[in-house]
Amino acid sequence: MDPFEAIADPVRRSLLRRLADGPARVVDLAAEHPISRPAVSKHLRVLAEAGLVTAEDHGRERHYRLLHAGLAPVRSWVDGLAASGPPIPASALDGLDLEVRRTGRERRATHIPPTEETA
């Protein structure tokens, strides 16, 4: 599964945030969410298919942990957005400000206030 598709779900994003703090068992993760343990397991399975988490067996317990490398495509995409620079250079905004002030001055100079008619 695509990591973008996997993190599209808010429960899965929440699980990833929790696993960023350290490994956890399904029962611990389920205690922190208002959904059943099988539902948490299903979300973890999706995250594992996307390469975002891995499971390690410790005796009878299974501990899930975040795989930071799985987030590389997401991080790369976000970094690409930030690297594009500001959409409008500051010099263009200075020119726009100057033009707005000039136009305002010209309108005020040519504006003739309506005359009041008195009876």
Automatic annotation (TrEMBL):
Highest taxon in the source lineage: Bacteria
Pfam families: HTH_20 (PF12840)
HTH arsR-type domain: residues covered: 1-86
Record keywords: DNA-binding, Transcription, Transcription regulation
DNA-binding among keywords: yes
CDD domains in the cross-refs: HTH_ARSR
Record carries keyword Cytoplasm: no
PANTHER family: TRANSCRIPTIONAL REGULATOR, ARSR FAMILY, TRANSCRIPTIONAL REPRESSOR SDPR
Protein name: HTH arsR-type domain-containing protein
